[in-house]
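In the current project phase, work has continued on tokenised descriptions of protein folds. One protein thus recorded appears below exactly as we store it.

——
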Amino acid sequence: MLGYITLEIRRTLRDASFVIFGIGMPVLMYLLFTNIGSGGGDSADWKAASMVGMAAYGALGASLNAGGQVASDRSAGWLRQLRITPLAPSRVVAGRAVSGSATVLPAVLAVLAAGALVNGVRLEAWQWAALALLLWAGALPFTLLGLGNGYRLSPQAMGVVNVACLMGLAVLGGLWFPLSSFPHWLASIAAYSPAHRFGDLGWAVSHGSAPGLGTVAVLGGWLLAFGSYAVVSYRRSARAV
């Protein structure tokens, strides 16, 4: 299983499109959001909050990218080869989730570096470390969501679904704009969305506190839901091959 995980990580990091769009795009968007126009761009608090939101957005995009690779593997017959190995469905999904999570870290670190080096965001050393760790580990539910989609969809459909999931989750979760700018009814719904609770991991740390138990519980619920979806999708894909 370790060899399988290592192989998938190397395949992803050799993908130039992932490096450009998965890592470079969130950095560019963060710098544009915080340095062009008004929008609170001169506020240190705004730059720190936007940094966390855009790092979460980068992690979200990198996580969902794992699903696109799975869809390509299905069409190439790679999953058919995996099914003749002793790996159980849950271990295949877990291996993919671990390899997908490993590629999340570069996207998170790139945005945090832009915040510190370009926008002058100042946090304590423990806050930087906690931000990187929590945003890396907290992206696991979205990796599982991407895998579930990848096991069900064609590569062509997966591209559309990935973009829809990424944009929908980011906007609804308040990663680009705070929930205070939403209508009250929408903000009430968005508060329980997975992306908002994911971003809240980082926002809490940037304010010097630990994430709330409610945030951890809601994310745990989404982790179980998306994990079950990924396993069921993998088993269903075996009947479609």
Remarks:
- The mean pLDDT is 84.
